[in-house]
Amino acid sequence: MNLKGFLIDLDGSIYRGNMPLPYSKEFIEFLREQGIKFLFLTNNSTQLPIEYVRKLKSMNIESDENEILTSGVATAIYLSNLKKNGKSYVIGEEALKKAIKDVDWDITEETDYVDAVVVGLDRSFNFEKLRKANYLIRNGAKFIATNPDKTFPMENRIDPGAGSLVAAVSAASEKKPIVIGKPSLYMGKIALSKLGLKSSEVGIIGDRLDTDILLGKRLKAKTFLVLTGISKKEDISKSKIKPDFVFENLKELTMFLKECLKNKS
Question: Which residues of the sequence carry a binding annotation for Mg(2+) (predicted)?
Answer without folding.
Answer: 9, 11, 207
